[in-house]
Structure formats: structure tokens, C-alpha cells
Write a structure and sequence with these properties.
Layout (H helix, E strand, L loop, with lengths): L1 H28 L10 H7 L13 H6 L1 H11 L5 H23 L4 E2 L6 E4 L4 E4 L2 E2 L2 H20 L4 E6 L18 E2 L1 H7 L8 E2 L6 H7 L9 H13 L18 E8 L2 H5 L8 E5 L8 E4 L2 E3 L10 H6 L7 H5 L6 E5 L8 E6 L7 H4 L5 E5 L8 H7 L3 E8 L1 H4 L2 H6 L5
Parallel strand pairs: 5-7, 5-15, 13-14, 13-15
Antiparallel strand pairs: 1-2, 2-3, 4-6, 8-9, 10-11, 10-12, 12-14
Helix pairs in contact: 2-5
């Protein structure tokens, strides 16, 4: 009896002291332990690691308000052993119960766990985001964005300015997930309240039917695959006749070139805690591109940095299961990427204001210009007015990003007028 009680007490003590032991191990010893035991996996799953401010709340008032206790809880939560496994297992158990209800009531889609912002569509084996609601507050955000973009265009009437707002799954008009929200914030609302009212822009239609979306976007990631990206590139170029013909590829019509052993689970799978049952495979087209001169945040780089998808099997093999492989295999997000094309037949320059959706095709846009400047407002604090003033060779501007990035604070700040 004494041995059993002692063993139970020891196990209970280890469980309760687990976060402290893990904190000491990670901060002091830096051991080579597996990611599932440490906090690495849970950090990937949550997208970030919450920072607790304990020292800043060491006061009686913080104790009385409960702030200090909340900060301590956050810090302890950061160091729970096997937290990632617990999150995934809990979601899987919930999903099993939800799936049984789905089979009974014949739902077209069901949440990946209780309270999830994502749904699984069994018929098509895809994950989709749930749309938000077009509340008066959200409409005001669209109106504020409209004012900022129109003001920018009015100050740069000498430039050809185009807009291509990339589809997100939660903005699909006809998807199975759209039926779960009344008055959804979808592409129709975005178009009516913002895109159709832009002045000084060539707005290139980007609405995609659900049936096309599931073929041209990854099933577990919010990004488009090369089919969807190349289609968008061709649409943009074909509606910009002065750019010339779309850059061709030898695999067009052949469905792309699959990269062997390049299976991955993307950002939607991670956020939906749906990483085990579904995966995607990277594929690309063969492009014979001009010889470019590449500069990233002011430093010269080899052209191969624009696309490393041929190294996908090795990169994925050596990476974490929840890594954002899209930005690793095409290229990372930088504040400024400059692609110079010495073989260009014109002296025009493009300012491509983009988020990560452009990563797989900015190499194609660069073939139409002498210089292509890729500006990501998330990592570049300069205003667009200032950037354009310091690059007088810019003749064309293309906004290419998803709705969230289009209205992001960083994007609207970049549009501010430079006094």
C-alpha cells in the first residue's frame, strides 16, 4: 500500500511539475528532445507563442483584478508537455462525435471541432473557412478601405493601377460553408461595397466558383496551387494588353509536374487541428525563365531563391509537420523583393503590392518588365507614396492580395499620404 501510494504521489508530482521542468529544460538546458514533447508543435498549431508579462503585473492591484493570475496561467500554458498532442487528440475526439451527427443529418460540411472557424466537406475532401458576417461594422471597414485606395489612386493618376483581390475559402459565394452564416461577408459583398466603387483602378475579376476553387487551391492550405495561380496570372496579363502575352510553360495542359514525396499539411489543416487525415502534394509547371538579378531587402541573392520547389522532398523531410511549406518552397515573405530582367524589351517597371499569394508567380510577372518591385506592407513600413517617389521608373502598379490583406492595418497605413 505504501509503495503504491508513493508511486502515485510521484506520478502526480511529475504531472503537476511538468510545465516547470519543461520551462527549465528549454530555457536552461536546451536539450535535443522531440518537438511533440516540447512546445514546438503547439506553437506551430496556435500560430504563435503567447507572451506573458509577469514582471509588469507584480502588484496588489494586478492580483485583485486577476491580471497577474491570467499572466501566470498563460506562462504555465506555454510549457505544458505534449500540449500539441493533447490539442490534436481533443479535436479528433470532438470531430468523431460531430461526424456521427453529420452522417445522421446528412450535412454537406461540419466543423473540425466545437467552436472551429473551419469546416470539413466530406464529398470533396477539403477544408474551408467559415465566412464572417457582413455586420455594419464590417461594412464600415470596407468603406474606410475604399476611401484609402481611391485617395491613393487620385494621387497617382499618371500610373496604370490594377487590382486583383485573391479569393479566400471563407469568401466563396457558393461553397457548402456559406450556408452556415446568415448575411455572410463574401466576395459579392466585397465586390459591391469596395471593388466596384474603386476609381482610378483597373479591377480584374477574381471571383471563383466553388468547383474551380477545390481544384485550384490546396485542400489543407489557404494558398492557391500553381493551377489557380497561373490562371490568375494569365487573366491579369490578358487584361493588360500592353504587358504582352502570358509567359508560357511546357507543362500547361498536362496538369503540372508533381514533386515526388512532397506531401504536406498546410495552414488550414493546422488551424483546423485536422492534420492527420488529409494532406496535399506540391506540384509546379516547368518555366524556362529569363536570367534575373534578384535583390531581397537590399541584398543580392541567386535567382533560385524565387522558387525552391524542386527541393521540396528534402525540405519537407527535415521540417516540422506544421511548417508553412508554401513560403519555404516558393519563397519567404520579404518587405522588398526586386527582380531585374536585363533581357526585357521595354523599360517599364512594375510595383507589385502583394501578400504571399504572389510568391509563386512574381517570377512570371517579372518577365514582362525591366524591373519588378514586390512590396509587402506587412514587412515594409515605408508608405507607397514615398516608395514610388524614390523609384521614378515605376510605370505600373498591381495590388494582388486576399481580402484580409487588402484591408489589413499595415496595408491601409502604406496607403497614407506622405506629406
Amino acid at each position: 500500500m505504501t509503495f503504491r501510494n508513493a508511486s502515485f504521489a510521484l506520478i502526480l508530482c511529475l504531472c503537476l511539475s511538468g510545465p516547470l521542468l519543461l520551462l527549465v529544460a528549454q530555457r536552461g538546458l536546451d536539450p535535443a528532445l522531440p518537438s511533440w514533447l516540447m512546445t514546438e508543435d503547439s506553437t506551430y498549431l496556435e500560430g504563435s507563442k503567447p507572451e506573458a508579462d509577469i514582471r509588469g503585473n507584480l502588484s496588489l492591484s494586478s492580483i485583485a483584478s486577476g491580471t497577474l493570475q491570467a499572466e501566470l496561467e498563460t506562462e504555465v500554458g506555454n510549457y505544458i508537455p505534449c500540449k500539441g498532442i493533447a490539442q490534436l487528440t481533443n479535436a479528433r475526439l470532438q470531430r468523431t462525435a460531430i461526424a456521427l451527427s453529420s452522417d445522421l443529418f446528412r450535412w454537406d460540411a461540419y466543423p473540425t471541432f466545437y467552436g472551429s472557424k473551419y469546416v470539413y466537406v466530406p464529398k470533396d475532401d477539403v477544408l474551408l473557412g467559415l465566412p464572417g458576417k457582413a455586420t455594419p461594422g464590417e461594412i464600415k471597414k470596407l468603406q474606410a478601405g475604399l476611401e484609402a485606395y481611391n485617395s491613393f489612386a487620385s494621387r497617382h493618376g499618371n500610373l496604370d493601377i490594377a487590382m486583383y483581390c485573391v479569393m479566400n475559402s471563407d469568401y466563396l459565394v457558393d461553397s457548402p460553408s456559406s450556408q452556415y452564416k446568415s448575411n455572410p461577408m463574401n466576395y459579392s459583398t466585397l465586390n459591391a461595397e469596395l471593388l466596384e466603387k474603386l476609381v482610378g483602378f483597373r479591377v480584374i475579376p477574381a471571383n471563383v466558383p466553388y468547383e474551380d476553387y477545390i481544384e485550384q487551391w490546396y485542400a489543407t492550405d489557404h494558398h492557391w496551387n500553381i493551377d489557380g495561380a497561373y490562371r490568375a496570372y494569365c487573366d491579369i496579363v490578358e487584361q493588360s494588353p500592353e504587358w504582352g502575352l502570358p509567359y508560357s510553360n511546357s507543362a500547361r495542359g498536362g496538369g503540372g509536374l508533381t514533386i515526388p514525396d512532397a506531401q504536406f499539411r498546410g495552414s488550414v489543416s493546422r488551424s483546423a487541428l485536422y492534420d492527420k487525415e488529409k494532406y496535399d502534394t506540391f506540384f509546379d509547371y516547368e518555366f524556362v525563365l529569363p536570367d534575373y538579378e534578384v535583390t531581397i531587402d537590399g541584398k543580392p541573392y541567386d535567382q533560385s531563391w524565387l522558387c525552391q520547389i524542386d527541393q521540396a522532398p528534402q525540405i519537407i523531410k527535415n521540417g516540422n509537420a506544421y511548417t508553412n511549406y508554401y513560403v519555404k518552397l516558393y519563397h519567404a515573405n520579404w518587405g522588398e523583393l526586386v527582380i531585374r530582367n536585363p533581357s526585357s524589351e521595354n523599360d517599364n517597371s512594375l510595383l507589385l503590392i502583394a501578400d504571399s499569394y504572389s510568391n509563386c508567380i512574381d517570377r512570371l510577372f517579372a518577365s514582362h518588365f525591366q524591373t519588378t518591385y514586390v512590396f509587402d506592407a506587412r514587412y515594409n513600413t515605408e508608405t507607397l507614396d514615398s516608395y514610388i517617389e524614390s523609384h521614378p521608373d515605376i510605370t505600373n502598379v498591381l495590388f494582388l492580395m486576399n481580402p484580409g490583406s487588402l484591408l489589413r492595418d499595415a496595408s491601409l497605413t502604406a496607403l497614407d499620404k506622405t506629406e
